[in-house]
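can u pls check wat happens w/ adenosine-5'-triphosphate
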Amino acid sequence: MILELDCGNSFIKWRVIHAADATIVGGGIVDSDQALLAAVGGLAAARLAGARMVSVRSEEETDALCEAIRQAFAVDVQVARPVIEMAGVRNGYEDHERLGMDRWLAALGAFHLAKGACLVMDFGTAAKADFVAADGQHLGGYICPGMPLMRSQLRTHTRRIRYDDASAERALSSLEPGRSTVEAVERGCVLMLQGFAHTQIDQARALWGNEFSVFLTGGDAPLVQVSAPGARVVPDLVFVGLAMACPLS
Ligand SMILES: Nc1ncnc2c1ncn2[C@@H]1O[C@H](COP(=O)(O)OP(=O)(O)OP(=O)(O)O)[C@@H](O)[C@H]1O
Ligand SMILES: CC(C)(CO)[C@@H](O)C(=O)NCCC(=O)O
Ligand SMILES: [K+]
């Protein structure tokens, strides 16, 4: 079995797959290295043959987590590294090492699935969009605050915006103009994300007409689905790219 890890800015997404056919044994989302070791240990510890990881954390944090996994489960961790070109996709950054690995792997995964021009949008801690042309050229993309960052900026920098997570969730039952603080903020931030998605799709249309695929991923992808009709929601898109970048057998 193979352990796959996507270390984001706020959460670690993990799953364990069978090496032979990539069927999923189990997985989850945790918010600390300790919670990850406990969760994986409960599932598959003794039977791991390998591990692969993508991380947007610092080199030190990434190394520490790899070492902890090595100690706990006696497996080497293959970490995805920046490259200029892979699987027919060419990195569009001036300095290819600066492109976030989560964005790069999502782009690889999307181009592999689309076999043509694609727009990839990832709604996590940050919201990201990346453009890959039909010939595999990555054109670059956009980064802006995602739902958690927009919300926390408002909470942090105002005196009178205060509410709890449960009321935040209730507030999103509709997107009508908010009639309480929590509704006004939560719905306002969702509309920002939807506006971001619309603008990216307009841009893709200007570049490619109707000849492109749209992919949505990240924890908050469901919030923008209505703004991207026809988009493929692929929650494990980064893992698709990770398997391409770090083949283990
Ligand atoms: N089961 C879940 N666990 C954690 N977050 C979730 C879940 N479902 C939806 N979310 C939402 O997803 C968002 C986090 O998305 P994601 O896990 O993709 O972030 P991340 O990988 O830490 O961020 P980034 O990819 O920008 O580094 C949060 O706003 C959170 O509320
Ligand atoms: C933008 C984030 C933080 C999103 O996770 C990540 O992709 C990252 O750290 N990127 C490096 C900066 C860049 O992609 O230009
Ligand atoms: K990330």
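The mean pLDDT is 96.
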